[in-house]
Amino acid sequence: MHMTRSKQNYLGGVISILLNLILFVLKYWAGIVSGSLSLMADAWHTLSDSLSSIVMIVGTKLSSKKPDKEHPFGHGRWENIAAIFIGIMLAIVAYQFMYDSIVKIQNRESASFGTLAIVITIISILAKEGLAQMSFYIARKTDNSAMKADGWHHRSDALSSVVILIGIFLQPYFWWVDSVLGMIVSLILFYAVYGIIKDAISKILGEEIQDSVIIKVKNIIFEKYKSDFGAHHFHCHNYGNHKEMTFHIKLKPELSVEEAHEIANDLEKNIKKELNITTTIHIEPNN
Fold first, then answer.
1. 10 vs 57: CA distance, rounded Å
2. Strand, coil or helix: what is 229?
3. What's the whole-model pTM score?
4. Ramachandran bin of 204, using left for φ above 0, alpha for ψ from -120 to 50, beta for the remaining angles
5. Using one digit for the tens of pLDDT, what is the confidence trace for 255-277?
6. What are the tens digits of pLDDT across the range 86-117?
7. CA angle 20, 22, 24 (to 5 degrees)
8. Which has the least CB within 10 A, 30, 80, 118, 262?
9. Which pLDDT tens digit goes with each residue over 188-216?
10. How far apart are CA 271 and CA 233, in angstroms?
11. What ranges make up the beta strands (E) of the chain?
């Protein structure tokens, strides 16, 4: 049975929350047993992923509300707002990474890891990257920017675990390696934050319609009428799970109003069926 857009997002969020809670317990336990402060800090980083998943689920729930009198185009942009919230949370995590790394260098601190820490860290890397791939897949299928942001949050946790794993093996040779790699991961996270927030804000402000969409629309027209009717002046408004598009077509002036309306109405139905875009078509005489 084909899952709806909202159900895919909810399922991804619930799986993320449950797995993050399990990883938090394992990491914190390994941190206590091995006496590793960085592992315990990484455990709290993992727990923060559960919070971002909750934000994503709430954003998806709000965006799925039906249009009402105050919001005739629906509530789809809540997904973009949720993505901005997740981006801010990720920025806080990145800042904390940078701050802790600098403090550890200043105090000439080095991590202390045991065999248990290695096993738990490898499990964490595989699980978190798996969650990231799942989130990116659902984001591609549903075009949900909040889910994409959640995927980056999962990947940030996988990266932090990679830093710890590298530090485990290089620690005997370079006492400062854990701190330097922490700074590198912090910069990677800040770059991810930039991409997440930029993408969400761009969608809220309104983006130029993609050429690929225009080509698909013209193909739909041509397949039906063997002409593209000189389709032009395309505009598209993205409301997350709902898109509104307007464009102009040129028809023979001798057509009656009823005939011209029937052509426009037919095209609007076909575009809705093929591309899931609500369309309003303006008619012009071709002379």
1. 6
2. coil
3. 0.64
4. alpha
5. 999 999 999 999 999 999 888 88
6. 788 878 877 887 888 888 888 887 766 678 88
7. 65
8. 262
9. 778 878 887 887 788 777 667 778 888 99
10. 16
11. 232-238, 243-251, 278-285
